[in-house]
Design a protein that fits this description.
With 57 residues, this protein is α+β, with helices and mostly antiparallel strands. The chain is 32% helix and 28% strand.
Length: 57
């Protein structure tokens, strides 16, 4: 799967980045769904994905 479209947020979940509505320290929100961010993936998600998305806007 293309890394610029999909991001792994836990052992059980890979999400389409274009569908993420919001993020907090523990969850990704897509519509009414609350998807947990796993401890192993948290640093990558915030350092690589969130920072790049914010800077690219």
């Amino acid at each position: 799967m293309p890394e610029n479209i999909f991001v792994r947020v836990s052992k059980s979940y890979i999400v389409n980045a274009s569908h993420i509505d919001s993020v907090d320290n523990n969850f990704v929100y897509i519509g009414e769904n609350e998807i947990p961010i796993g401890n192993i993936y948290r640093d990558y998600f915030f350092d690589e994905f969130v920072t790049k998305k914010i800077l690219s806007k």
